[in-house]
Amino acid sequence: MTAQTLTLGKALNTGLRKAMENDPKVLVMGEDVGKLGGVFRITDGLQKDFGEERVIDTPLAESGIVGTAIGLALRGYRPVCEIQFDGFVFPAADQIITQLAKMGMRSLGALSLPVVVRIPCGGGIGAVEHHSESPEAYFTHTAGLRVVACSNPADAFTMIQQAIASPDPVIFFEPKRRYWDKADVDVDASPGDWAPLHDAKIVRPGEHVTVLAYGPSVKTCLEAASAAAEEGRSLEVIDLRSLNPLDIGAVTGSVNRTGRCVVVHEAPVYGGFGAELAARITERCFYRLESPVLRVGGASTPYPPSRLEDHYLPDLDRILDAVDRTFAW
Question: Where is the Transketolase-like pyrimidine-binding domain (predicted)?
Answer without folding.
Answer: 6-181
